User: What shape does this take?
Amino acid sequence: MTHAIKVAVTRRLPAQVEKRLSALFDTALHDADAPLSHDGLVACGRGADVLAATLGDKLDAAFFDAVGDRLKLVANFGAGVDHIDVAAANKKGVIVTNTPSVLAEDAADMAMALILAVPRRLVEGVTALQDGKFEGWSPTWMLGRRVRGKKLGIIGLGRVGEAIARRARAFGLSIHYHNRKPINPHIEDELEATYWESLDQMLAHVDIVSVNCPHTPATFHLLSRRRLELMQPHAYLVNISRGEIVDEAALAEMIGAGRLAGAALDVYERGGPNDKLLGLPNVVLLPHMASSTVESRMEMGERVIINIKMFADGHKPPDRVILGLDPDS
Ligand code: DGY
Assistant: This one.
């Protein structure tokens, strides 16, 4: 038992995770399941050694200035850390950890579902049926586009991107990717993947684009209007990473104007989708649920506990977020 370590939790976590945290540490759980305000976060973290935080908790420089000196670890429940100012944390001697790898397969399943859903008009079909518009099979009604044989361009071939590529190959898609550097040549060969140093050139070449890089200052609006305009009019965009990577207003306008064939999004620039996106038929919109399985949430909790336990035992937590390296999921 390492009860001397005080852990403050910002949100409701799965019951078993909360139980285990309470058994191992002096844990202050949080009843409410909504993101805390700046003051709420400071009050929660003040006096704790560890803050078990999550997506939506804005841990900026002002937070680290205000929280006091006891806090030494932010153990994030989640892979993405774009809500945390890691540089400000490190400057105050606070380590940040995340939960890499455990959600990659579930997230890739959802990305693959979206890659299939938009060209095959899955949600449009369900909606038409529910709205009483199905009058029997027709040779010309509800025609989508074939997925097999198309080119998938993955922006950010890390753990999730690779898991998507494996699935996509089974569906007959060829794999193209843009990273800062090519991946391990063995994996590239196995996936028969084509590396594009130029994102612009890849965008102009592929039929479906999947966004899988993390959101950092460098990737904000990576898919700007100019880049979206490089995509072919028959192309689709899938984003399960972070909304901020895509200029959402430009995307909605271009789909509305028939300049892009459609999109499937799990994440948005501002909480939820903009109104223009909501009105489009050839768009599938999910409420940030790509990694939402019971299993992944349990395993994310386990990573949080492992990181805190290692820290409590005087070791380096295994999932430290290192500045300058992409926090891969
Ligand atoms: C993460 O872990 O950052 C995901 O976006 C949550 O699903």
